[in-house]
Write a structure and sequence with these properties.
By secondary structure, the chain is an alpha/beta fold. Helix content is about 45%, strand content about 15%. It folds into 2 domains: about 180 residues, Glycogen Phosphorylase B (Rossmann fold), CATH 3.40.50.2000; about 180 residues, Rossmann fold, CATH 3.40.50.2000. The strands form 2 sheets. Strands 3-2-1-4-5-6-7 form a 7-stranded parallel β-sheet. The longest helix is centred in the first third of the chain and has 15 residues. The model has no long low-confidence stretch (mean pLDDT about 95).
Length: about 350
């Protein structure tokens, strides 16, 4: 079976991480897999090494003019990938986001989560990428139910895998290096943006710091297509008003991320919209206490392995409890849950699904 998996970027983001891990797991079964993506800003490779069993086709996508809007960049992204991609050699064309789904025409689409855009180009891209694919996959039942309720679709549910050993077996020296640099810290991965609940986390940290002044808030990641400068400015202004100084690391090298996660005292995941929560599952693999937003999808995915919060005040309270009282039962449940989500199993379910929708 010849499979094309399509993404929108070479840089670390949940959907890109998913695409590469799925491609490698499919290739390990003997499938012929090619990953297509856009090389933004001169990128000629992915943020990490890709198993040579997977073919990689990176379409050059140079930066646009300074005045280019997000909507115009999305349309240019779609057109660039469409002009380069040839579906002819593939039995399965599987898009992982709305940009690639709009670019390739007839395809299978994984809907990782649903967004609500106000930019016309983005709203149209989002809608077409739901209604036009001939088959759909979701990484959680909650998102599948949203597609069923909103569009009358019946997606397959195939959860993410997790690179369990990568996060569970980090080197002590690497963890110690982060602790020496940062001291005790609460970590979040995903950058500063509205969907990630960054302002709520900032408010929670101000409350937490008043009770535990030695604990830092560390923010890693943040690669995105969108322009969140206004939100980031509000976040920075609010940090000054609150008198707190979080550590913003930005993108962290792939080989350094597991030890950064494993060295954390707690992992905060206050997202307002998610489809699964891969970064949070990686924290469980590392044995780190997890506090998440109280959303149906996160209740579904994490159950008794996580603590849940529905406001900045409760987020601060749950983080405080996680920091001062280690819960071995919850930690064991988290490791067991993360270990159960393998990419090999995800690949097997994908192959079965591909066969079920292929004439």
């Amino acid at each position: 079976m010849k499979i094309a998996l399509l993404s929108y970027s070479t840089r670390p983001r949940g959907g890109v991480v998913h695409t590469l891990a799925l491609a490698e797991a499919l290739a390990a079964t003997g499938a012929d897999v090619t990953v297509w993506t856009l090389g933004r800003g001169g990128d000629s490779g992915f943020f990490r090494r890709v198993d040579p069993a997977v073919r990689v086709h990176i379409v050059p996508f140079p930066d646009g003019p300074p005045e280019e809007t997000v909507g115009a960049r999305i349309l240019r992204s779609i057109a660039t990938l469409r002009d380069a991609f040839d579906a002819g050699p593939y039995d399965i064309v599987h898009a992982q986001d709305c940009i690639s789904a709009n670019a390739v025409g007839r395809c299978i689409r994984t809907v990782h989560h649903l967004d609500h855009f106000t930019t016309p180009e983005l709203a149209a891209c989002h809608e077409r990428a739901i209604v036009e694919p001939y088959a759909h996959i979701c990484v959680s039942r909650s998102v599948a139910d949203e597609l069923a309720d909103g569009w009358g679709l019946k997606p397959a549910v195939i959860p993410n895998g997790v690179a369990y050993e990568r996060f569970a077996a980090t080197h002590r020296a690497a963890r110690a290096a982060w602790r020496s640099r940062l001291g005790p810290y609460v970590l979040t991965v995903g950058g500063i943006e509205p969907r990630k609940g960054s302002l709520d986390l900032l408010e929670a940290y101000a409350v937490l710091r008043a009770e535990q002044p030695g604990v830092r808030l560390v923010i890693a990641g943040g690669e995105t297509l969108f322009d969140y400068r206004d939100y980031r400015a509000r976040w920075e202004t609010r940090a000054v008003e609150l008198g707190v100084e979080p550590v913003v690391l930005g993108a962290v090298a792939d080989d350094e991320l597991p030890s950064l996660v494993a060295a954390a005292d707690a992992f905060a995941f206050p997202s307002l919209k998610e489809g699964f929560g891969l970064a949070a599952m990686e924290a469980l693999a590392a044995g780190v206490p997890l506090v998440v937003r109280d959303l149906p999808v996160l209740r579904e995915v994490f159950g008794p392995a996580a603590r849940f919060a529905d406001s900045p005040q409760s987020l601060a309270a749950e983080l405080g409890r996680a920091l001062v009282s280690y819960d071995p039962v919850r930690a064991a449940a988290g490791r067991k849950l993360a270990a159960r989500h393998t990419w090999a199993e995800a690949a097997a379910h994908h192959l079965a699904f591909y066969r079920s929708v292929t004439p």
